[in-house]
Amino acid sequence: MHMVTREPAAPRRRWRALGARLFTRRRLAGALTAVGSVVGLATGRAREAETLVTGNASSREELRVLADEQAALRRVATLVARGMPPVEVFTAVAQEVGRVLDADATHIVRLDPDGTTTVAASTGAYADGFPVGSRWKIEPPVAVAAALRTGYAARFDDYHRAPGAYGDRLRKLGIRSGAATPIVVEGRLWGAIAVGMRRGRFPADTEQRMSCFTELIATAIANADSRAELRVLAEEQAALRRVATLVAGGASPTDVFDAVTAEFRRLLDGYHMALLRYEPDGTATLVSAHNEPGVTMPAETPWPLEGENVAALVLRTGRVARMDSHEGAPGWAAARIRELGFHSGVGAPIVVEGQLWGAAIVGSRRPEPLPPSTETRMVGFAELVGTAIANADSRAELAASRVRIVAATDGARRRIERDLHDGAQQRLVSLSLELRLAQSAVPPDLPELQTQIGQAIDELDAASDELREISHGIHPAILSEGGLRPALRALARRSAIPVELDVRADDRFRDTIEVAAYYVVSEALTNTTKHARASYAHVTVEQRDDILHLSIRDDGAGGADPTRGSGLTGLRDRVQALGGSIDVSSRSGEGTLIVVELPLQPD
C-alpha cells in the first residue's frame, strides 16, 4: 500500500510566506533600480538641459554682439560708399567702436612726418582731453605708440606708467588700460585707432574686432585721396586748357607768362610762382611772378645765378631741379632767397625750339618740402610757355618778313613808276612833239598826210594817258610828293562813281602807312565800281591818337566775301603786316563797309 507523506501545514505556510517576501524584495529592488535609473537619467537630462539653456543664452549674446557689430560696420560702410568726407567717417567710426567695445574713450590719430600724431577724431572721455586737431608726441609702451612703431595691434594695461604729456593726460582722464590698431592706407602706415577703459581690461578679441573698422577707415581715406587726386588732375587740366587756349589764340608772351604764374599758383595755393629768362651774361631776369602776401620780387632785375639755387641748377643741367632747403647754400641768390623767407623750391626748364630759354620756379616759405608731384605738374606749364615764346617769335619773324615783302613791293612799284615816267612816258611825249613839228612842216597840198600824222599824234597822246594811269595804279607819284590828302583827291576824281571824301589828317605819315591807306581806298573803290553796282561811295580818313582810321562805305548790293580771292585778301595781308586790322561788313542789300586801323607808331 502506497503511502503519501504530507508535510505539516504550518511549515508550508512559512515557506510560502518567505518566498513571497523574497519575491517582493526582488521586485522592490528591481523597481528601486529602475527608479534610480530614471532619476539618474532625469538628472542628467536636467543637467544637459541646464547646460543647453546656459549655452543658448551665451550664443544669443554672442549673436547679439555680432549683429550689433555688423550693423555698426554697415553704417560706417554706407558712409564710405557714399563718399562722405574722411572727417565724418572718422567721427562715425570712433563713435561706433566706442559703443561696440563699450569703451570709455576712443580716438583716431594721424601719424605726421615728424613722428608726432594729430588727433583726427575723439569721443567719450578723450573728446575733451584730446580734442580734434591737437598734436601729441606718444612714447612706448602706450598702445598707440606700439601700434605705430610696429605696424601691429597692441595693448597696454598699466597706463599709470605711461610716459610724457600723453600719459599724464590719460591718467588725468582716469584711463587705466587701452588697445590700438594701426591704420594702413595702400601699404602706407597712416595712423591708428585707440580705445581706452577706466575699469578692467578689454577682452582678448578687441584688437581683432577693431581691425574691421580700421579697414573701413583706410578705404575712406584712400577714396578721399583718389577723389582729391582726380579733382586736382581736373583742375590742372582745366588750367592747362586755359593757357593753351591763350597760346593757340596768339596771345603775347607777356599775357601767357602772367596766365601761367596765376594758374599754377592757384593750383598750389600758398606758394610763390615765378618765370625767369636766362641772359647771355649768366644772370636771370624775372619776367612774371605771382607772390605770396608780403613777398615782393623786383621784375626785370637781373639775378646773379652763381652759387647754389634752383635757377642755377636748371641752367647747369637743363633738367628739373629741387632744393628742399637753402640753408647754408652759397651765393647771392641763395642769400636773397633766405631773406625772403623761402625754404624750398622746384624749377622746370623752359625750352624754346631746342634751346634753354628760362625756368619756371615754385618757392615755398613753409618748413616742409614742396609736394613730390610739383615737378611733374610744372612740366606741362613750362612746355606751354616755351610754345608761346616760339609762336611769338614765329609771328614776329612772319610779321617782319611780311613788312619786308610789302616794303620791297612798294619800292619796286616806285621804281617802275619812276622808270615809266622818266623813260617810256617821256619818250612818248617827245615823239608826240616831233610828230607835231613834222605835221606843221607838211605842205598844204598834202592834207591826207597831215590827217595821218594827226591820228598818230592822237594815238600817242592816248597811249601816254594810259601809261600815266598805269603808273598811277602802280605807285602814284603824287603820293610820294604831296602826301595822302592830294593822292586821295586825285583818286576820287578819277573814280567812275561819285566819291565823298572826308580827310581829317593833314600830317605826313610813314611811307608804308600812306601807301597802305592809299591802296586800301583804291582797291575798295575799284571793287565798288566793278561789283557793287553802287551809286556813290563815302571815304573817311582821320587820325585817332596813334591810329589812322579809314572807312569806305557804299550803297551797293553788298555780299562781298573777302575769303573768295578778291582784292580784299591782298589788302588784309598788307594791313596785318603793318600790325593793323581790317573789318569788312557786307550784308546783301545793305552795301559794303570797310573799316581799317593802321598803327602810326612802329612796333
Number of helices: 15
Fourth-tier CATH superfamily name of the largest domain: GAF domain
* Computed CA radius of gyration, to the nearest angstrom: 52 Å
Q: Can you tell me the CATH architecture of the largest domain? A: 2-Layer Sandwich
Strand line-up of the largest beta sheet: 3-2-1-6-5-4
What is the third-level CATH name, the topology of the largest domain?
Beta-Lactamase
Q: Structural class given helices, strands, pairing?
A: alpha+beta
CATH class of the largest domain: Alpha Beta
Largest sheet: 6 strands, antiparallel
Number of structural units classed as domains: 4
Strand content: 15-25%
Mean pLDDT: 78
Helical content stands at: 40-55%
Overall geometry: elongated
Q: What is the number of E strands?
A: 17
End-to-end gap: 179 Å
Spans where pLDDT lies below 50 across 5 or more residues: 1-43, 51-55
Characterize the structure shown:
There is one protein chain. 55% of the residues lie in helices and 19% in strands. With 603 residues, it is α+β, with helices and mostly antiparallel strands. It has 4 domains: 20-71; 83-229, GAF domain (Beta-Lactamase, 2-Layer Sandwich), CATH 3.30.450.40; 252-389, GAF domain (Beta-Lactamase, 2-Layer Sandwich), CATH 3.30.450.40; 477-599, Histidine kinase-like ATPase, C-terminal domain (Heat Shock Protein 90), CATH 3.30.565.10. It has a 6-stranded antiparallel β-sheet with strand order 3-2-1-6-5-4. The chain has a 6-stranded antiparallel β-sheet with strand order 9-8-7-12-11-10, sandwiched between helices. A hairpin with a 2-residue loop joins strand 14 (537-544) and strand 15 (547-554). Helix 1 (9-81) runs antiparallel to helix 2 (86-100), helix 7 packs antiparallel against helix 10 and helix 14 (511-532) packs antiparallel against helix 15 (567-577). The radius of gyration is 52 Å and the shape is elongated.
